[in-house]
Amino acid sequence: MSAVDMRVRIGDLELRNPVMTASGTFGSGREYAEFVDLSRLGAVVTKGVSIEPWSGNESPRIAETPCGMLNSIGLQNPGVEAFCANDLAWLAAQDVPVIVNVVGHSVDEYAAVAAQLDSEPVVSALEVNISCPNVDAGGMAFGTTCAAAAEVTRAVRAETRKTLVVKLSPNVTDIAEIARAVEAEGADGVSLINTLLGMAIDTRTFAPKLARGVGGLSGPAIRPVAVRMVWEVARAVAVPVIGMGGVTCAEDAAEFMLAGAAAVAVGTANFVEPSATLSVIDGLERFCAERGIARVAELTGAAWPERGKRET
Ligand SMILES: Cc1cc2nc3c(=O)[nH]c(=O)nc-3n(C[C@H](O)[C@H](O)[C@H](O)COP(=O)(O)O)c2cc1C
Asked: Domain range holding 220?
């Protein structure tokens, strides 16, 4: 037993530590299993799953940018039935909580995926993605107004009693009001941020680097934006916040928790270092131990002004 209590709670879900994978950057875990002992993770968050198979966008759909990357994958996935038969069946044999990222072109599609996953015992929680910038119908369109975000949350809530997390878009003026809207409809937590809408143009060919033109920016370049948004949301809602956006090491994870996150997700860093999640977990435990912090959960919101400054 470690000297630091690393457990955190998201709704009814107790996680062994606050570090999970960010949707779309870790497959369903299988591709990473030779680098990462999945049973050490707080949770595996799967790629987005829709009711029917989606083929995703045309290539090129990845471009490197300073301290980050742009992607326009477009939620390519085999559909919920194949996902349950293959990915979930494999995950059932792993000792790790499974959070399934849910996507749809319409409110009914979100609800249908949630209904199907509700009967799968291996699914610990749903993460409803109303924030993907890479699809024309659905995705981010549901995450940019309070009314649409509330409608999707209400429809999914009606289909499942599992822990329900809603993943928010940073491509809005006031992310806290969206968070309040989904909390009011029964979300047990919110996760943020999804990618920031961006673009890069090749100055040799004069053409956008992504076939779709625009894409989602992720990686360390977005971290200060993400930390600011976690700070705003965590102070606006009572439900737990899962923070992400450019986490590469324990200090980054601690920064999100100090801003108010109960847990964090590691995304783009998995592409650079497949075992990044494990070094964040080990480093976070050391971070707490070295500062005499007995429970990692004590970091949550510890930077808020009313908590006062820490003696160093
Ligand atoms: C290649 C790629 C695919 C992604 N796919 C999804 C997805 O299917 N569902 C989702 O909610 N977020 C998706 N995201 C967003 C990430 O989960 C995360 O919110 C974002 O990348 C910020 O974290 P990071 O900077 O650590 O990558 C994807 C990101 C990348 C880079």
From this structure: 8-307
Give the distance (Å) from ligand 1 centre to CA of residue 23: 5
Against a cut of 0.90, is the pTM above it? yes
SS3 8: strand
Task: Determine, yes or no, domain membership for 217.
Answer: yes
Kindly tell me the sign of the dihedral angle through the C-alpha atoms of 77, 126, 43, 276.
positive
Domain count, the chain: 1
28 lies in some domain: yes
Residue 67 annotated as catalytic: no
The pLDDT value recorded for residue 276 is 98
85: its two tokens:
């038969």
Supply the CATH number for residue 159's domain.
3.20.20.70
User: Each residue of 263-284: pLDDT tens digit?
Assistant: 999 999 999 999 999 999 999 9
Query: The tokens 């990692």 sit on which residue?
Result: 296
Is the C-beta atom of 139 inside 6 A of ligand 1? no
Task: For ligand 1, atom 10, name the residue with the nearest CA.
Answer: 23
Dist. CA 219–CA 183, nearest whole Å: 27
CB 38 within 8 A of CB 90: no
Q: Pick the residue whose CA is nearest to atom 28 on ligand 1.
A: 24
Residue 305 CA, ligand 1 centroid: distance in Å: 31
Question: What phi and psi, each to the nearest 5 degrees, are found at residue 42?
Answer: -60, -45
Residue 2, in any domain of the structure:
no
Rounded alpha-carbon distances, angstroms, from residue 286 to 22, 38, 218, 264: 22, 20, 27, 16
Give yes or no for residue 210 CB within 6 A of ligand 1: no
Q: Are 288 and 280 in contact (CB under 8 A)?
A: no
Low-confidence ranges of the chain (pLDDT < 50): 1
For 218-231, what is each residue's pLDDT tens digit? 999 999 999 999 99
CA 267 to chain centre: 8
**Start-end of H helices in the chain:** 80-83, 89-91, 107-118, 146-157, 175-184, 223-234, 250-259, 269-272, 276-290
Domain contains 92: yes
